[in-house]
Protein 1
Amino acid sequence: MSESLIITSTYKEGIYKELLPQIEAVIKQETDIIANQANISAILKEAFKFLWVGFYRVDKDNDELVLGPFQGPLACTRIKYGRGVCGTAWKEGKVLIIPDVDKFPGHIACSSASRSEIVLPMIKDKEVTGVLDIDSEKLDNFDSADEVWLQKIIGYLFF
């Protein structure tokens, strides 16, 4: 793959369609999940100009999420089970799309610039192993199309 992304589409689903084979090409031969998460974070941040894109992994011993590879401003390092959007997505084992983070009870403001968020649990063998968290500076920036395409991308981590 080239060192830069090839994106010709101007609409969200078109961008995802173009990104999918590029992401697959980058991570297919790499077995290290940290390296793959780092590249996925960079690709999504570059393609969509999101405020923050990153992964948190489950630390069962301490009942919290621990920061993994990310792109964007300084992030929260640890998030307790059930706290904030990420901890709630982990607890409920489902995707959370938050149109306005200021209206989410218990939202953890790692960055005051964040206005909307999507968090997708990464599930392997019926267990949440971590989450993909994406923040936007725009209100209501995420929808079911993001959910569908981002779940496909997460699926690549578990070839």
Protein 2
Amino acid sequence: MHIDQGNMILNLKCSEKEEVTDLQKEIIQFFKDNPNPKDEGKNSIQEWADKNGHDKHEVEEAIYKLVTIFVEFLTNGRANEKGIEEDDVDAEELKLGIEIELEHTTDPETAKRISLDHLAEHKKSDYYTRLKKMEEEMNRELGKNDL
């Protein structure tokens, strides 16, 4: 997940009274720079916390908050509300949706999740075909050859 996307999710999920903290932003960057870090030892979360003057318990709490926000993101949405899964939508439309949503994320699972939400939200099962056609028409009007 891109750092800006992580911040976007945080902003969407944090209540109006609650701001995204600098510590949460730093943790997102740490995980972006260090995928699957260890808890202790070299290049670990604890080493990073010590190096940056953060209390380990506060870092741990912030990580749990981020995980909770991400789990909510993954388990909410139109597809989950309507009980729509991958097998319930047109496979080619989902594939196109994933390709399009990968413009906004590097994670195929996140792209699939967003695609399923869009396909569940719109009554037309050809949402991404229509979107691609609209983008192509707009690009032709603007004199652009690529999407």
Protein 3
Amino acid sequence: MSRAHETFGKKETRSKQEKKRKDKEKKRLERKENKGSSGFDDMIAYVDEFGNITSTPPDVSQRKTVNAEDIDLGMPRSAPIDPAELIREGKVTFFDTSKGYGFIRDLASRQDVFVHVNELKEPIKEDDIVNFEVVRGPKGNNARNVTLKKKESPPLP
């Protein structure tokens, strides 16, 4: 029985499907014949001391032993900080007494630090030299325990 009105496109599609089916069957038979040649050993990869992936296992003679106690996990412990190092010296660049806040320029790092009136030990004004501690606040560095070091003398006429 012949197929009625089979177009060229349909014939081509049918022949492609047939060819694909034959190729698949051929590959299946090849795999069946070569059974056992590919296995777990072919899939193993090793990493050398430089981080490159290789197919050869590492040399056992070059292996180094490491004590578990010598491995430090986490942050290295630092020496305790001397409280005298926390105290900084700075110059008051701006202070608004009516609003109760201002800024101190650290003389060592040249960074501005926010200061609030609640952190003052004694009243300050602009251009005063002060000692203070820096603490991390929610919006940046804040000055704490602000004490007046010396008052800026007025310029001579």
Protein 4
Amino acid sequence: MTRLNVNTARCVALFASELQRSDAPAPGALAGVISQTVRRFGIAGCASRMAQEFGDHPEAAASRMRWIRTLITQTPVPAATRPAEPGGWPPIPGFGPRATQPAAGRGHRAA
């Protein structure tokens, strides 16, 4: 599976949201819409909904994606998704390799 970058993930989530052009969203409101949509469907669910729309209504879906990409390029990335350090992006919840954690009570001790 291909890893999404932050802007692509934001576009996919907005595409799957109920946001409409007539809503004329303020830039600050987009982060809330994206978060709510990802919590509701997960990033894979958002991508699935987007793929279905491109299959069912390709012209309308292409127009919606152009509008969404314009919104995203005009809206700065929220501080929570900016790189934590130069060259590195924080993980997108629900997407990418899962972090492994040691089982409870089985931590290693330093010798």
